[in-house]
Structures
1.
Amino acid sequence: MRSMRGLLLAIGIISLLLWPVLAQDKVVLRRNLGTEPPTADPALATDTTSVEIIEQMFLGLTDLAEEDMSPIPELATSWEISDDATQFTFHMRKDVYWVHCDPETGEVTELDKVVNAHDVVYGVLRTLDPRTASDYAYVLYILKGASDFNTADPEAENFEELRAAVGVEAVDDFTVRFTLRTPAAYFLQIASMWVARPQPQWVIEEYGEKWTEPGNIVTNGPYCMKEWVHEDHMVMVKNPYWPDWDKAGGNIDEIYFTMVQETSTEFAMYLNNELDLSAVPLPELDNVKSDPVLSQELTIRPFPCTYYYGFTTTKPPVDDPRVRRALSMAIDRKTLVEEVTKGGQIPANTFAPGMIFGNAALDPDIAPWALPEELGGWGYERAVEEAKRLMAEAGYPDGEGLEFVLMHNVSEAHARIAQAIQAMWLEAFPKANIRIETQEWKVYLQTIEKDTPVENVPAVWRLGWCQDYPDENNWVHEVFNPVEGSNRPRMSFDDPYVGDLVKRFSDLTLRAQLEQDPVIRQQLYKEAEKLLCDDIAAIAPIYYYTQVVLTKPWLTRHWHDTNHYETWSIDVAAREAAIG
């Protein structure tokens, strides 16, 4: 730990920025986001950083319970589901108001506008409107007419008819009804998502793209945005008019979000009592575990996310599935999680982890070469031999002629993982030319979009996926279905190698949506996972996440999938005694 203490002098300027915030007579939570949120707009968010910000400011019809991720009321007080599970009617509470925060004074004003069913309908239709260009609109394709509206030409004569045909309506001011194209019990969990949250139409129409800036933004959640200095920090203040503070039980008056990308700097700030929680840099994890103080502040717990490398399947040399499988086989996942990440992660052979309904995680029928022998797999020695054979069969013996870019967003942890995997690949294919490139998070997300020109997209790229709700539909279908999913690997029915398998994959995930028998759904998803990760090899799943977090002893936190800071508490006296 001594080497990390030396970093504290280097970040003194950050201390000077943070301490004035603590000098206020408020309970301030200090948290590092790790990057600039790409957006605070519920219709446009696709990443966990943006969602974390949105979660504090906008309520959903439902929320997900901390214990088991089951749907619980939030804006809705109750709901009815039709016998055929295609119609969901939500009855909304009448005591949640839109509020505005003055960025100069931090004063929150309650507007004379109650959040209502019309705000929900507007939010859903705005997300689906093709002019909004929401990359997450596909999540709402379960609604009747949603896909047709989202993919329509706004200049078409029937555009307004398509909008009116979407399966969402305000039955009255506080009752909203959704009509689905197919039965979906998990729709109660989709109703918790940011893309289905109410949005303030009058503010968006007045300010356009600037509506989420401080002074413009109007929200309804437990916190309001006071300040957003882009690429530097954001400040949120408590919404005193949010009616559930007594039930929430937290005491956080203000949240100060920094946007420091380097985990080593974040960790140093934590050691210097400038942050109340922190990630742990990979090189420091062993030291933290052995430190008598920090080890007591460390939490490692399973988390419903998967770390993976995606392949741009239309870009040589990874347009050949043999190359993709060989690259996936040549990743020594056991060594990676034991020697590099060291956070109790589990080697992954499928996309969805074990806590997701319909998952096939660690089933050796799928990509057994990804699993060590003790988990029922081949083990790395056998896997790498098969990888060498496949690569030679594809025309790249020992990697000769194999050249591509591996890209990840800026992060010390992602860099260490990429360097380790690059070394594994070069050991297996010593004549290959594999370069690592990085981009800032917001730019990176655009680079790997499925509609970015292929010449501007890396052949291999890093991402993680965390559940929006715990069902395989949110994983293999919404992320990868070529017709309705985000499909960053660009899987296509016209693929000369595996087009028929891609069509099979698409059909399976669509059939699983329609199927009501959970046993049959499980079987369909297992086959889809095998196609995605093994036969087509559109991605290389690497490991199932854990949360590795340091938390100061004065902070009492909860472990919800998305942080609910209104439930967190700080013992101010204990913090002041520790800080001095």
Note: The domain at 302-546 is CATH 3.10.105.10 (Dipeptide-binding Protein; domain 3).
2.
Amino acid sequence: MTRLFNDPAEFAEEMIDGFVASHSRWVRRVSGGVVRNTQSTPGTPALVIGGGSGHYPAFAGLVGQGLAHGAAMGNLFASPSAQQVYNVAKAAGNGGGVLLGYGNYAGDVLHFNQAQERLRAEGIDCRSIAVTDDVSSAPPADRAKRRGIAGDLTVFKVAAAAAEAGRTLDQVTEIATRANHRTRSFGVAFSGCTLPGADHPLFSVPAGRMAVGMGIHGEPGIGETSVPTANGLAELLVAKLLTEIPDDVAPGTASAGRRVVPILNGLGSVKYEELFVVYRRVAQLLAEAGLDIVDPQVGELVTSFDMAGTSLTLFWLDDELENLWKAPADAPAFRRGAVTAAALDPDTAVEPAEVERFIPVASDVSRAGARRILAALGAAKNVVDANAEELGRIDAVAGDGDHGIGMERGVRAAVDAAANAVARGAGAATTLHIAGDAWADKAGGTSGALWGLILRSVGDAFGDNAAADAAAVAAGVAQAAAAVMEFGKAQPGDKTLVDVLVPFRDELARGVSSGLNLDRAWGAAAGTAQRAAEDTARLLPLMGRARPHAERSLGTADAGAVSMALIARAIHNTLSEENKVKENA
């Protein structure tokens, strides 16, 4: 378990501070993560990688000459926000465009794509590569749906080496895509990991058993079997991966086209000595299969806090990929060959100062609406704080258990940002926009992106001049539902917050159109939301990290749906109190 921490909600930020303080030869801190503390060649592409914290040395440990130019670092097991990715990309850029690299998880896809769009809008050529190496997370026919685990390293390493060699962004992107196509991983776990402040692991495995095909965010495995010997484990891992030789790898036993980089990765608490015993047999099996082993790696490269487990990655080489894999690199956690440090120009190391957000002029009635919004957000914060542990427990049944922490960070940031906006005279729309951006930025993850979008969409319906009456609220919720489904691609029945948001929208619209005041219409909709959240227990997840473990989630409601229903009820309580005050006035 994680023993050393202060406030669990601040663990990631404090960890980054300590990492930078101890590795300043390689990296410097920027808003949203870290970038190289050495000079890169002007005009070359920059590789910016990232994901949730809790996986060291991924992702910050891979920043340095010959490897990544920067890493966006999210909260524990949660994707960095679009703002964090954008900030790191801007700080890391060399003028030759940016390639964004990340594991194929819903939150990462949402936030990195948002950042990509923003960079492109500013005239910066930006591409993305979502790593999809985990063979257990989807069948071969659905490779694009697979998640990224330890294979991140192979894709990032060769892409970075290509950029360092002066290849164009088009060439770097093609090389990263080819490396991803030629990388396969498969893992097992003997116990789950425990997040800071938690008193139990995200999942458990009975004594003498192991989970097969688990993820790196505390997701349980897709199956379970008895713990084998070290040789038996090696045979299981190798046999599985050799059923998925990439289609562009030459058949037969000739070495040409049959070269592989094996990576035996420890997930947190399996000792190096144990890994060496397993790798002994891995090497024998690969040789027996007629493969040439190139530069094998054994150790902790992509971890999951204290998870007891290991994964095997096979990276199938061609001549170009082999040269790039072997190219020199000097990062805190990955070094190859000799790299001459290039001192950083102090002028390039200065981040632009943050500019306080402009507050447009608003009407008195809209400023009054902004104060009510702040009260509603405060109620949301209180209910999330009170239920964070339970939300994490629900999320851990088939996911990564970070929903409670992420919601806490997001709603707290939204309340602070809204309070500052209200104090500066903001109207309803501006307050919601600022609060939504703060929520998305601090929470990260899928829920952060979606709640940021919800607040922004409702704000668009309000404006900063008109009153936020019942009709405007209903219109805002309708816009939010449409935006969430368009952005996140989830539909009712997918076991997500959409299963609450859509019936809430419909019931609210019915109540308002029938003449109910906002208090009564919202109350009826909140009741519908609660029932809809409970009903998600009967659904199988079709989106997000829980999808590969769908059967496990039967009987448990979706965490995002539950948190939305809780917030809907908490906001209704503020509306009821406000209505009572008016009636007694």
Note: The chain is about 45% helix and 15% strand.
3.
Amino acid sequence: MELISQHAKRIMEGCKERARDAGLHFQNESLEYIVTNRDMLELSPKVMIPTLYDYWVQDVEVLKESGRYELYPSNPYETVINTRPAISFYNDNNPDWLNVMIFYHVIGHIDFFQNNLFFRHTWDYDFASRALSDKRLIAKLRSEKGRWLDYVIEFSRAIDNLVGYFTLLSPYAREDEGRKLSRLDFFFDTFLQNEKKVSTVEYIKELEKYNALIRKHPEEGEFLFIEDVKSRYSEFESRYQKKKSGEKSTERLDIFQFLMEHSEFLNREENQWMLTVMEVVRSTSMYFQPQIRTKILNEGWASYWHETLFLQDDRIRGHEVDFAIVNAKVTSMPRVGLNPYALGMRLFSYLEDKANKGRISMDFMMLKDKESRQKFDTNIEKGRDFIFSVRENFADSMFVNTFIDQDFVDLHKLFVAGKRLNKERMAWQYYVKSRKARDYKEMVLESLYHPPSIQMQVLADNTLQLNHVFEGKPLVQDYIKGALLGIEYLWGGQVYLDTSEVVPPGPLSQLEGPDEGHAQPEIAWQRVRYRMQDRKLSRKTLE
């Protein structure tokens, strides 16, 4: 892995200039690396963060992907991560014309990372440097604690989709409250004195370190000091956010925070190191939460701009057909399934056209006549401004729910595919199940990331009761045992999990296709309780 050549860097800087002229906004600095396919295999288990902490599962993934690569060689073009500065990786066999297209795609991602409000909590620090600090901390603890450290990492990662992401974002949305307490004040007034209970000598050393940085770097000294604090105390940021939001009740705590605050086992002096490991896993999950929740938007935005800017770039003359082939592979809309690049890009183009014609208005929405809707055009040319606003304020669920309508579905001839059994050939057949926007929207929403909502409560006998707030989707049973095993260890006692599962159906006499006039049986749900005690899982049905 090495930095791109000066020739390629000049191409990238030229792409940045054209992107800014088109309205994209991003920081000047960026790092670009050339990598081989083998490098990609080694970076992928670490989610392309080279400095991420080491964990045995990553080695297993490298071996698995290496075996798969031998059978099915692939050639990924690029990947980009949301750090400060932004870091991107490019395949070592990309020609210049392809790099122009890829650079535009990457710049679209960087603009999205640095302007979408769901990434707001990642704007104030460089995750790569923080991850390096966490990596060194994990390595040090591994040398002291051995396999027990990997147990804690594994147990924590089993529940790392249950972090309180929206609770973290909420203080940024409140302009009038929770803004006065700075990280600096919290560190010196509360964190050092009340939580760490440092000696007077250590406290003075911290003050001297801060003053030295201010003298050396008057403008950014405070920022550098706080970054150093975060690298030394991984739990600092979460404690600060909690204090800043004035959090009092346990209702807003995620399961990590609940265990860290209320587990007698974790808060024993000899187990304090486990809290640090859990906070590393939790903060890493928090970093990736917005990327999971904006896949369609993010890829659609990048694809929209690589197509828009590439076709206007004079450096690609003679490679229009090559571009069309590559672009079709990336952004073609499948007849069955979902391509986030294609769906997101077409939605942005559709919204730009609608806004240019004034169709993002109540007057247009009230029209029922198809011919009148097709002719409606106020020619206000506000499309580009509108899609920039969408880029800033929306996540995937909002994006899909708000903007997929019947006109969009009809325009691109979209449909929901069904599946039925052909009894003569004993093979599954796909068919057009619905062309309604409501059904297509529901299909897309079903595919989006939606972690379960879990409420925590401590019973009189110190049992931890987890209540799954049922929203129509059952938990994946394959993961229940592993997750509860880890929670039992971290809690230090037995754990209950109350959830909803499907009532087992009666025996099926035959396989019938949905088009044969047979009504689908209505799904019945029942409440069940899982109990994990002494590493043994039991299950019973609740009345």
Note: The longest helix spans residues 272-293.
4.
Amino acid sequence: MIDYQTLTFEYTRCSEQGPDAASCVRPVVVVGAGPVGLATAIDLAQHGLPVVLVDDDCTLSTGSRAICFSKRSLDIFDRLGCGERMVEKGVSWNVGKVFRKDELVYTFNLLPESGHHRPAFVNLQQYYVEGFLLERAQELPNLEIRWKSKVTGVAQHGTPGTEDAHVALEIETPDGPYELLARYVVAADGSRSPVRKLMGLDSHGRTFKDRFLIADVKMEAEFPTERWFWFDPPFHPNQSVLLHRQPDNVWRIDFQLGWDADPVVEKTPERVIPRVRALLGPDVKFELEWVSIYTFSCLRMDSFRHGNVLFAGDSAHLVSPFGARGANSGFQDSENLAWKLAMVLEKRASDALLDTYASEREYAADENIRNSTRSTDFITPKSAVSRVFRDAVLTLAREHAFARQLVNSGRLSVPAVLHESTLNTADEETFAGQMVPGASCADAPLACADSNSQGAPQWLLAQLGGRFTGLLFCRAGAALESDARAALDALARGPVPMHFVAVLDGEGAAPEGLPPGTTVMRDAEGLAAQRYGAQEGAFYLIRPDQHVCARWRHADAPRVERALKRALCVAGTA
């Protein structure tokens, strides 16, 4: 097993250095080789773009740090080519329990229905996530990683929105400085973002006056693989405690300490071990693997786009750890941004498409900050009235379902539904289900259309993503309507690469008239049609980041072409 926490990576000279340096404007430079920077660089490279990734360090993270990765992040990892490794190593879970003192208040299931490829969450130490992403990045020949390359200057040149606009980065290395030019720069360089500071920008929001202790404990334990949260437990009175299982027999325990706790003293084994012992009992053997004290803020930049510099992940927004909304929202930033940069650089979309990255992800950040703030206020009430309310809710929640909706031990991360996105085309007909324009696509089990084929079940999300996709629901053996055939034919011959997926609702041959290369699958359990509210002939236009941008009961060429232009910010789609 590789110890990702001890790996170091060599600095090497690049083509921009030395007396014979060749100066050229790179399409994209990503700053920061953390999880979000790596995911963004991989996604861009998979779109065929040459990418340079720079980092001021030469190591991966140490300590577990972010550990809780949502189903949406796992879906993204699948598309990036490393999802299976994440799930195989991680600890999968769907169930959580909430306690008050030593009594169980209630149990919840974050993925109560079957028919999904991935679990609700996987717990996995951040150094594994970074390691698996890095190994995937190293497989891509058009992705160059430059270690020990610190950004010390940022200057923008040219007219914004035109092809002459670019960014000049001053890079400090062990061999001295050099200039790195890029059409666009993605700043994924963390909460202290040097790029943000160099540009004189700031984040705004709220800092919470509380401290928490993280103790990663290695032990053999009988706790189930669930998320357990205690309010005012007897082993840590008047505070809260969170317990999660990680791989390698490591358990994450978060202890609320209060604002007056001394962060230096509380990290010492003499203070940590008794707290852990009080939770586990006197006979459980354990050892401390990593200890940290943290405070937290809910902050975001006013705008995630500044000219040709785009901010993603913690550099753009920061939330409290309750609800696992930090890293997961950062991966959603990366998937939103990568396809838009690719379309702009390939001249298939206008530069205005990048403005929608900012507006969509600012909307999502506000939603995450709102939920994160509410969780923090419930977990750590700052007034006597707030505490009375919280305790009353917990008392009622033991018997009454309505009160459980008010309990907030961390509203766990779900992708934002981009209802107001300008890339959406509004419904013209009535649909059932939650796959509205702006929603991230739901998964469903499929079967290969060849009835003689054998093998593992197929999944809908595996057929979507990376490019625009036309998702057609049709009846096996039936002929396509003329409007649908014309729409598919027009899209197949259009300027934007499209893929088509036909989901059949029965046995029999695929309809004639599907474009060459269409992926034909069967709705194995009827769940695809159910989740998409789809009847025969329904057509969905899916963005490269697996978000719905339009849907129709019956597609016709003009409507679909207008929707595609709108999704690319092409003029004339108002």
Note: The longest strand covers residues 203-219.
